[in-house]
Amino acid sequence: MHSNLFRPALCAAAFAAWACASAALAQTTAPAPAPAAAPAAVPAAAPTPPAPPAAQAMYLRSLAATCANCHGTNGKAPEGAAVLSLAGLEKGYIVAQMAAFKSGARPATIMHQLSKGYSDAQINAIAEYFAAQKR
Ligand code: HEC
Prior knowledge:
With 135 residues, this protein is an all-alpha fold. The protein has helices spanning 2-14, 17-27, 53-65, 68-71, 91-103, 111-115, 120-131. The structure holds heme C.
């Protein structure tokens, strides 16, 4: 069971496509480790194995990118923009602001709704990402 779940992910991350082909065909017709394409034999509640570092970095960048529409690419708002940059802010500050938006303690126009869409773990990761960006 465990190896069934793990093998496609490992293949996609670590080996060239040809190396995966036979193993992937034995598992499923789709080489991607997307949950929707997982074989029916894998229980839905099975714990997901830790994603390889490259996949984690991609996940983190995608999360942070959901803020880019307003706060700029990588949290850098363009010069003169009305919305604040997030790049280079303290991690703890970002986490605290998001919590204050979630609870309604800090007045906001849009951030109340947005902040509620993220788990504490996601906010933590996003805050760490922006704190690491250059201002
Ligand atoms: C639709 C535009 C929009 C998006 C998308 C958006 N924000 Fe905001 N953000 C704002 C606005 C506008 C404010 C000012 C408060 C308000 O009016 O809601 C703000 C304020 C903030 C502040 C306070 C900044 C400070 O210096 O005190 C933080 C932190 C923040 N946003 C984080 C985020 C994060 C993290 C994301 C992505 C998960 C995000 N925002 C996505 C519009 C946006």
